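Page 37, continued from 36.
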């Protein structure tokens, strides 16, 4: 028996007539979807359809409430999903399922508030989930969705959407942070929070979720849209709305590629705006003070060092001078200091082991930041692995394999079950496997350390990476490369993939990193490392970076690259000694 999907016009007359067709229309658990049509007002709203998803035991009554809501007066269509097998738990699950997919589809602006999407367990949940797919396909056939489920789930718009069902440690952290922030605002006290997490624990998701939740509380005008049993519904009060009213909130993202994509997410999310997503320089040059700044990838903030361009060097000095005057004679101020100076409240999201350049914040500054947060009870640790299906142990295992300081310790290979973790001795075979995985499930890419010159920046017909008979090119775009049309044939660098998810990742470890079997140690070849900003000294601060310093950065880069894959990670090492070393810990693919 299929679910019934009824269509009716978004009008009081249509809802009143529909109510009397069946008693279930006023007394049965249902899910409904409201939208403003295929074409109307879309041209003036970034070509997006406005859509709202809800559930109710009294559909007719709930729809009449929506008809009286000013913010929904432009909506035109109602689709009500009715099934004799539905219960309250099923409807809550279907509601969150549709919200997440609509937000990730790319064609919609979801009007729902972010008050806590549920992922509750209930009887026969997997059976119902199969029926949800049928409902999705019927809605897609009716034009509600524009892409398939795999296409949506493979998109970063879906992965970074604020309409996510948080893990328990994420939800608990958001709840405690929000409570503390509201108390501090009420007391006119300043605050600093630190969120720490390994790759794949959803640090960026938490940042975006928090901002959306704060903005929704800030803009709430009534309680009519709130489900009382949702996780954060208790925060939607007149008192909290007053505390957050006109508060200036921003998200700082140091990495260009990730920053540009988050702007796209904000552009398609009600209440958010791309201008809220900033570089550290944007913050430093902004007028006035922010009430709250969230900083994603805090470890990628810069200290005083040679910037990528002359104008940025000048900006760094100008901003620091304007903020601190003569208080920076030894040039010790960093972009972390900018953030603190320009905001009353800060939330720093970090993983020190993902620092990849000498210009990044020094590890001692990050350690002090964490220590201070711990001492004040404002430190939160994300532990649940959301990306890698092999679990959190996989991240620890990769870092352990590549840790130069632990090579003298006894080591054993770890089994990760069905997770596809393989080492190759042929770059061609690894590339073929990536092509095959991409054809099967999509979102499979090759990445590499910065161990080859970027010739194609000047000559588009050249090749950058040549290994045996295989010729490859670096990523042809610095932003949103993973979703670009040529990505499967290209190789992504650390600066295009840090912070992103892939289904399968093929990691090329270049000649910049090797292993000496006689001395049992990892080593770097400085001449094979072509990231100029990744190895240059810092004369401004009188710092020189030794081979040991570069070894730390380079091994951390490869650890980041090897923790991008949701379903599998493939590894090819150019250095023969390193290849043999890694095959002691990674299953070999003949």
């Amino acid at each position: 028996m299929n679910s019934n999907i009824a269509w009716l016009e978004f009008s009081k007359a249509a809802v009143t007539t529909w109510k009397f067709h069946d008693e279930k229309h006023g007394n049965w658990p249902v899910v409904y979807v409201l939208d403003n049509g295929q074409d109307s007002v879309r041209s003036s709203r970034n070509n997006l359809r406005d859509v709202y998803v809800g559930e109710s035991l009294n559909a007719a009554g709930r729809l009449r409430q929506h008809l009286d809501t000013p913010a929904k007066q432009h909506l035109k269509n109602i689709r009500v999903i009715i099934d004799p097998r539905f219960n309250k738990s099923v409807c809550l699950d279907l509601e969150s399922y549709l919200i997440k997919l609509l937000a990730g589809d790319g064609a919609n602006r979801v009007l729902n508030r972010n008050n806590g999407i549920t992922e509750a367990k209930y009887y026969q949940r997997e059976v119902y989930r199969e029926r949800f797919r049928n409902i999705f396909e019927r809605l897609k056939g009716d034009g509600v969705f524009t892409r398939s489920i795999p296409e949506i789930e493979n998109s970063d718009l879906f992965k970074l959407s604020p309409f996510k069902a948080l893990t328990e440690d994420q939800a608990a952290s958001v709840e405690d942070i929000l409570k503390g922030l509201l108390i501090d605002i009420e007391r006119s006290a300043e605050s600093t929070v630190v969120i720490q997490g390994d790759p794949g624990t959803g640090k960026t998701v938490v940042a975006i979720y928090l901002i959306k939740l704060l903005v929704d509380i800030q803009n709430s005008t009534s309680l009519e849209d709130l489900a009382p049993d949702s996780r954060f519904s208790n925060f939607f009060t007149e008192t909290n709305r007053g505390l957050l009213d006109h508060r200036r909130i921003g998200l700082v993202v140091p990495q260009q590629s990730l920053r540009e994509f988050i702007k796209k997410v904000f552009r398609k999310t009600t209440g958010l705006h791309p201008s809220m997503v900033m570089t550290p320089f944007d913050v430093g040059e902004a007028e006035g003070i922010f009430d709250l700044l969230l900083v994603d990838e805090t470890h990628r903030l810069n200290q005083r060092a040679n910037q990528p361009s002359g104008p940025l060097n000048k900006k760094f000095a100008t901003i620091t001078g304007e903020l601190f005057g003569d208080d920076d004679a030894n040039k010790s101020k960093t972009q972390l200091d900018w953030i603190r100076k320009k905001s009353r409240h800060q939330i720093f999201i970090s993983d020190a082991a993902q620092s990849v350049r000498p210009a990044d914040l020094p590890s001692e500054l990050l350690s002090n930041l964490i220590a201070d947060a711990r001492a004040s009870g404002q430190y939160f640790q994300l532990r649940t692995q959301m990306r890698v299906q092999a679990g959190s142990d996989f991240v620890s295992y990769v870092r352990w394999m590549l840790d130069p300081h632990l090579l003298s310790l006894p080591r054993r290979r770890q089994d990760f079950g069905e997770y596809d973790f393989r080492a190759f001795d042929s770059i061609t075979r690894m590339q073929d496997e990536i092509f095959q995985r991409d054809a099967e499930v999509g979102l499979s890419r090759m990445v590499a350390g910065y161990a080859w010159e970027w010739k194609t920046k000047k000559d588009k017909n050249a090749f950058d990476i040549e290994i045996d008979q295989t010729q490859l090119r670096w990523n042809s775009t610095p932003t949103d490369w993973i979703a670009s049309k040529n990505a499967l044939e290209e190789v992504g660098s650390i600066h295009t993939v840090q912070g992103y998810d892939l289904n399968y990742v093929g990691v090329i470890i270049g000649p910049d990193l090797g292993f000496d079997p006689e001395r049992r140690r990892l080593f770097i070849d400085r001449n094979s490392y072509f990231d100029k900003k990744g190895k240059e000294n810092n004369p401004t601060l009188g710092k020189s970076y030794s081979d040991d310093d570069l070894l730390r950065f380079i091994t951390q880069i490869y650890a980041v690259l090897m923790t991008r894959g949701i379903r599998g990670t493939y590894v090819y090492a150019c250095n023969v000694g390193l290849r043999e070393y890694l095959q002691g810990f990674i299953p070999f693919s003949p």
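The domain at 168-382 is CATH 3.40.50.300 (Rossmann fold). Flag for discussion at group meeting. The longest strand covers residues 565-573.
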